[in-house]
Every structure is written in structure tokens, then in C-alpha cells.
Amino acid sequence: MTAVVCDVRRQGADIALHYRILVDPAALVLPAPAAPERTDGLWRTTCLELFVAGEASDYREFNFAPSGPWAAYAFTGRRAGMAPLVVDETPKIGLAAQEDALVVAVHLCDVGTGALRLGITAVMEERDGTKSYWALRHGGDAPDFHDPDCFVAQLPPAD
């Protein structure tokens, strides 16, 4: 695996993510296709993630399995006060395998219109047992996607 790239687009309160994982798709462990329903523990294997924070210490975590399941949590602070996040609309997840990449498109509704700090992350599990943890920035010596120092992508307020 050589890279995980994510393009983020905002339309009002909605966010569209386009992840491109540069790898032979056959080399990845992918969860079996499943209904697009809330599922805990997605981070244990190949999973794409988005952390969303405003200016305060609270934040939201979204997990997306390439196969369709998703999860969403609200936190009051770093790894504190975790609770299921109520979403009005199920995230839409699309998967396309190419010869040298796996492409996952995600559409999230009603994420908010204010300025946002994003942590764009991924867990990749390869068939040989290798697990890698991808982020725009890791805040410490070991990967910790909940570290506020990882929320480095900036989205200005929506138009």
C-alpha cells in the first residue's frame, strides 16, 4: 500500500468524502458486503474514519466500512463521554475497485455549517496480517486518532 488520499467537499451542512486507497484491492481485508446499518467495532479491520470538531473540545467520530456498515459517536472531550451520535440520515457509502486502487465515496448529511476541524483517518488491514493507521497527522508516538492534534484539516463556514 502506498497511499490513502481523501478529497473533501462541502455543500451547505453536508460533506462528501472521496477516499482513494492506492493498493491492489485483492491485497486488503474487506468486510463482507452488508446492509448500510450502524455497526460498532468497524475499526478492527479496514475502515475509513472522519473526526469532526468545532472550536470546543467536543467532537464527533464517523466510521465507514467500504462494504456499507457505518458508525457515529459523539464525545465530550478526548475519548470522554462517548455516546452514539443520532443521525437523521444514514451515511451513503459507495465502493469501486480499480486495478490499482480502491475508491470509497461517502456522503454525510447535516454535519454542520460552521467552521470545522477534521481528522481524516483510516485503518488498513492487508491479507498478510499487516495493519496500518493513516492520518493527516499523528499527535504522538503511537497512532491515536482521537488526539486533537490530529484534527488538522480546516473547513471554513459553509456559504
Characterization of this structure:
By secondary structure, the chain is an all-beta fold. Helices cover 0% and strands 44% of the residues. The strands form 2 sheets. Strands 3, 4, 5, 6, 9, 10 and 11 form a 7-stranded antiparallel sheet that branches. A 4-stranded antiparallel sheet has the order 1-2-8-7, with no helix packed on it. The mean pLDDT is 94.
SSE inventory with pairings:
Elements: E1 3-11, E2 14-22, E3 47-53, E4 59-64, E5 70-75, E6 83-84, E7 92-97, E8 102-108, E9 116-125, E10 131-135, E11 153-155
Antiparallel strand pairs: 1-2, 2-8, 3-4, 3-9, 4-5, 5-6, 7-8, 9-10, 9-11
What key attributes describe this structure?
single chain; 159 residues; mainly beta; globular
Helical percent range? under 10%
Strand content: 35-45%
Morphology? globular
What is the terminal separation in angstroms? 37 Å
| Major sheet characteristics | 7 strands, antiparallel
Which stretches of 5+ consecutive residues score pLDDT under 50? none
The overall average pLDDT, rounded, is 94
How many DSSP H or I helices? 0
Task: Give the ordered list of helices and strands.
Answer: EEEEEEEEEEE
How many individual β-strands? 11
Q: Output the structural class.
A: mainly beta
Computed CA radius of gyration, to the nearest angstrom: 15 Å
